[in-house]
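Homework help board

Subject: predicted structure for assignment chain

Our instructor gave us this sequence and asked us to write out the predicted structure in token form, then describe one feature. I got the tokens but I'm not sure how to describe them. Can anyone check?
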Amino acid sequence: MNSNILILDDNEEFTCLLEECFSQAGFEVESHLHPRDALEAFERTAFDLVVTDYQLPGMSGLEVDEAPRRKRRGI
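My token output:
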């Protein structure tokens, strides 16, 4: 089974480059430009790796990364 990777960056060119590189290496990749979309992706997919920009519109990459853990803990 391939690992699932989520890429989140508001730079579309960089996001596409990373998606292409990981896909060519055989990974299942989902990419988003906005944190809201990434948070929705966490609802339907368990990702093995999250690659995110630190500064994003509306919230930081750390906040996005923490969201699935908070949900699992019921916070």
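Reply (TA_rk): Your tokens look well-formed. For the description, you could write something like this. The chain has a mean pLDDT of 89. That's the kind of observation they're looking for.
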